[in-house]
């Protein structure tokens, strides 16, 4: 499977009273997968600090398909679904799979880049655009602007 940016075992702290992975644990591992992907493509924390920007989210949607239980292993696939070149808004899809290949959860997020000094939305600096070109695109990827 391509574009896997997180693999790990489901631990006790990620389980809820129903003995399956809790809702917010899916969001946590998808955030880590997205962070891993951005870092691998060149968007390191140091690079964000250099340009005084950071990614923020406006929306996070989780769609559950199958249960994941304690001690099972999961993989998270991350792909860019939409990017607006005019204002640098973006959307990513994350797919959480069990090791048996079952799709367990789909997480969709919408976000943008935040200027950390002005606390306002900003465009991605030109110097960082080559990193964006490396980000994996989903089937049906849409570029706006």
Automatic annotation (TrEMBL):
An annotated Gene Ontology molecular function: fatty acyl-CoA hydrolase activity
Lineage top rank: taxon: Bacteria
Pfam families referenced in this protein's UniProt entry, alphabetically: 4HBT_2 (PF13279)
Name of this chain's protein: Acyl-CoA thioesterase
Organism the protein comes from: Sphingobacterium puteale
């Amino acid at each position: 499977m391509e574009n896997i940016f997180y693999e790990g075992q489901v631990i006790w702290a990620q389980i809820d009273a129903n003995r399956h992975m809790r809702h917010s644990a899916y969001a946590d591992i998808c955030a880590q997968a997205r962070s891993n992907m951005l870092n691998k493509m060149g968007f390191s924390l140091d690079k964000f600090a250099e340009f005084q920007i950071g990614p923020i989210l406006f929306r996070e949607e989780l769609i559950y398909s199958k249960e994941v239980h304690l001690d099972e292993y999961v993989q998270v696939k991350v792909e860019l679904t939409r990017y607006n070149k005019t204002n640098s808004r973006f959307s990513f899809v994350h797919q959480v799979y069990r090791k048996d290949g079952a799709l367990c959860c789909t997480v969709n997020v919408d976000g943008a880049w935040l200027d950390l000094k002005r606390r306002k939305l900003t465009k991605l600096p030109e110097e960082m655009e080559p990193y964006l070109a490396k980000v994996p695109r989903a089937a049906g990827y849409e570029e706006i602007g």
